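User: Hey, quick favor. My workstation is busy. Could you predict this chain's structure for me?
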Amino acid sequence: MRWRSELQLALAAFGLSAGIACAQSLEFVSRYVWQSPVDGFGGFSSLELSPTGESFTTTSDKGLIAEGSIVRHSGRIRGLDNLRFMTILNPAGAPLRSYRTDAEGLAVSADGTIYISFEGTHKVMAYDSTKDAARPLPDIPWRDSLQKNSSLEALAIDQAGVLYTLPERSGDLNRPFPVFRLRDGIWDRDLSIARRDGFLPVGADFGPDGRLYLLERELTGLNGFATRVRSFKLEQDVLSDERELLRTAGGTHDNLEGISVWATPEGVIRVTMISDDNFRIFQRTELVEYKLAN
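Assistant: No problem, here it is.
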């Protein structure tokens, strides 16, 4: 993909569609390309930032979990520090192997519990810390209907500690994406999200405003990946007030798959995303940051 200046990135970020009308939009802030000699580096598909945006956690397709702090100057990401890479463990305390390593979604509760969704096994597991063995959660009753390599990409947790996950594909171009919700140890599928255009969900997070933010991507051929971010208001068993906040042209960013929504001390909502480089030399791991503008 071509390198673009920050000015070009900012201009491309305003390529919103004429679909869902919205008074809000995401305004480009900064981009940082992350490189590391660590064995197995890359393939990051999830992202969780601390409430202040100062530290982060991410998981990879090869079963790594990484933590670190984000260095900013004048509000722009300029580097990463205090990096730690660990292997995600199974319930027996052993490293994940084979297709079981494909960690796609990430959510961290208020008490620090880490939840990870796995695409290869169609499961969500809990961890007391990045060094602990997994604690299995109840199986999703509809897991046998999920497609291989297109299942539990997105994972989010609300302020009440309820988990939400949804597959990358719905099974039909005109079928909404089902949202699986875990409350009090029981999964339901009372919620859904409309499928629009060629975008597929790959990440989700609840913002400090209580809204659900959904990251979606579309492969636009040789132009690379296009990115879209929508947000929704959650009311009982309905996701309403759909807002399209961002739609970029193909190649504006790499393959953004992880999203985290937080607020600055001034109360400005920021949306930080990370790209999955698919372990390909012509792709890169990017951290991209936007701010919510009215």
